[in-house]
Amino acid sequence: MLVIHDVTKYYRNKLVLEHISLDIPSGSCIGLVGPNGAGKSTLLKILASIIQDYQGKVQLNNTKSTFQKKVLGYVPQEICLEQSISAYSNLCFFGKLYGLSGRQLKKRATEVLEEIGLSSHAKNKVLHFSGGMKRRLNIGCALMHQPKLIIMDEPTVGIDPQSRRHIFEMIRHLQETGCTIIYATHYMEEVEQLCNKVAFLDCGKIVEQGDISTLIQKYTTPSVFVKAKNLQVTALDKLGQISAYRQGFLIKTEMPIAVMKQILLMYQANTSELERLELVKPRLEDVFFTLTGSELREGVHSSSKESSKIGGVS
Ligand SMILES: Nc1ncnc2c1ncn2[C@@H]1O[C@H](COP(=O)(O)OP(=O)(O)OP(=O)(O)O)[C@@H](O)[C@H]1O
């Protein structure tokens, strides 16, 4: 269990983290989500003991020191590789930093190359790698010593879909082997796909944290989208909270299935007039919007409520 208790951090006199408290159970995968400048990287650097001048306490497995080199793997946001040497040599370099040597070092480098899907590029210089390959190798370097706690700072920024898929598979595999993962990202859908927990960081504060499904239930209402020929809002106004959307209507309701049934009944006689009827599942994006009044898109705050709805339907 990793316990973050009342952590506050200033850069000179600028407050960037304010009374952060989080409990991260062993074996969980927690998404740390927030817009640019929210303080995600700063918090992760504190957890990895890269930043040591902060107030508060970080405790790993009830020990006094956070920095337990052997159990912690940190994947930085910036690519941290030596470009002029091969993938294999980069892995060996980081392995040695973590105390590996000899046969064990070679074995791990070979295993990690397999895990990150770069075995066939083992001897190639990193200089010639694509962005996605570098990202995968960046992760591989943090896994050489088989850490049980892995901290990843936006590991999928600017990569191709194939590398993203590969990274997701790696993370799922790490979860299956019991690793604890802290995953900072701008992408809500990544958190939905990978994590069981989430913490929202906004302007240096945790605005909410918990199980993803619990938060979605707590902060959002399901909607039904309906599009039909000549449909007037007055025909729907008893069904829930209505808003216009994409030449149709969104109906916010606690009873979406009953509402869908009612709409089907309305069009029973003439189904050709009904163009679309859909249940819109609330997303994590909607939770963030409810909590902050802003939308998280590519890490940028936007105050467009309408576009939040658009995100819900697509
Ligand atoms: N070394 C530093 N010195 C001074 N200010 C800093 C330093 N590093 C970060 N900051 C500032 O601290 C705040 C939090 O930055 P941080 O990088 O932790 O946010 P973030 O949520 O990771 O953002 P991003 O998603 O853009 O990486 C920002 O306002 C940033 O400009």
UniProtKB/TrEMBL annotation:
Residue ranges of the ABC transporter domain? 2-228
One GO MF term on file is: ATP hydrolysis activity
| Pfam hit, one | ABC_tran
Q: Which UniProt keywords are listed?
A: ATP-binding, Nucleotide-binding
Query: Key word ATP-binding present in the record?
Result: yes
Q: What is this protein called?
A: ABC transporter ATP-binding protein
Gene responsible for this protein: sagG
